[in-house]
Amino acid sequence: MQSLPLFRFGVVADVQHADIPDGSSFHGVPRYYRGALQLLQRAVDDFKEAHVNFAMHLGDIVDFHNSVTPAEASAVRSRPDSALQDVLDIFTRLEAPVYHMLGNHCLYCHSRPVLNQRLGISELQGGQRHSYYAVQPLAGWRVLVLDGYDVSLLGWEPGHPLHELAEETLQARNPNKEKNSPDGLEGTERRFVKFGGGLSDAQLVWMRGQLGEARAAGDRVVVACHLPMHPDTCPPVCLLWNYEQVLEVLQAFPGTVVATLAGHTHRDGYCRDSAGIHHRVCAAILETPPGNDCHGIIEVFDDRIRVVGHGRFQSDDWSLGPVGHT
After folding, report:
1. Edge to edge, what strands does the sheet with 278-281 contain?
2. CATH number of 7-319
3. Cα atoms found within 13 Å of the Cα of residue 45, Cβ hemisphere only
4. What does the H/E/C string look like for 157-206?
5. Which PANTHER family does the entry link to (predicted)?
């Protein structure tokens, strides 16, 4: 058995930093807004000590409490700007690439163009308006970062075709006046809420093309998105709107796609699907009490992936079949 990994990378989810007193979620779960930076700093310290090749933050880098009115923003340095910079300053200390993706709280506080620029996404997708991209951290391995809010009321101005498509989707699937509410919806239909979103047709075509190229090259692929992609990993309200289409694409490439990573739910979740793909949802830094930790170091071998969890972040070992096979 291979003793040393091919590479390592660090993972954190849902920092949701805000310079405000501690609070709680709509369900009464404690949230430690200021303490999130301390936990992130410890995560980065552990990543550096482990000599990770890169790190990933799975979305929601700042919290919606940072959002301000235009009048407030013009009068003082905007809270969303300073909160975002506080988090980015800590990631900078890693001195290794950090790959970000958009979450709903990101889009409550900043426009898509601002996030693409500040999070380094623009450099990775050629300056396009979309927020999905691919990287190759090592020969034989690729990472696809998806934009779960490509079809969404968040991040696109009214009148944009993807904004209009999101409006039509919610109108058809969610009868509630308050579209953030899943009341009355059953099972996986509860995913059709305003704080959710989905992949556009263009992104699905791009993803299929990327996976086809990876299979032809004999590469393996890890796919990441803020929103979970499998219903067995999370509450239905947290699912990607068109998760079924996404799974259909992923499962068409068994042995090429080996794992997915997501955040959003604030607690760990896992399943392995019929195509042999490991699906992991990662717990949130935001809801981790001071003195505890919530980050993972993922070690990638030829025949397995080892998840080394710290604190609330669960450890695991995932077997891998031959490239191109389950």
Report:
1. 133-138, 141-145, 220-225, 257-262, 278-281, 269-272
2. 3.60.21.10
3. 9
4. CCCCHHHHHHHHHHHHHCCCCCCCCCCCCCHHHHHCCCCCCECCHHHHHH
5. MANGANESE-DEPENDENT ADP-RIBOSE_CDP-ALCOHOL DIPHOSPHATASE, PTHR16509
Contact 56, 307 (CB under 8 A): no
Sketch the domain layout of the chain as residue ranges: 7-319
The answer to whether residues 23 and 35 touch, using CB atoms and an 8 Å cutoff, is no
Note the pTM of the prediction, 2 decimals: 0.94
Written as six digits, the tokens of 8 are 């390592």
Tokens of 182: 């899943």
Neighbouring C-beta atoms of residue 216, cutoff 10 Å: 9
Cβ atoms within 10 Å of 219's Cβ, excluding its own = 19
Question: What is the number of other CB atoms lying within 10 angstroms of the CB of residue 305?
Answer: 20
pLDDT in tens, the chain (326 residues): 668 999 999 999 999 998 888 888 778 889 999 899 999 999 999 999 999 999 999 999 998 777 654 444 443 334 778 889 999 999 999 999 999 999 999 999 999 999 999 999 999 988 888 999 999 999 999 999 999 999 999 999 999 999 999 999 999 999 999 999 999 999 999 999 999 999 999 999 999 999 999 999 999 999 999 999 999 999 999 999 999 999 999 999 999 999 999 999 999 999 999 999 999 999 999 999 999 999 999 999 999 999 999 999 999 999 998 887 54
Q: Taking the alpha carbons of 115, 132, 198, 191 in that order, is the dihedral positive or negative?
A: negative
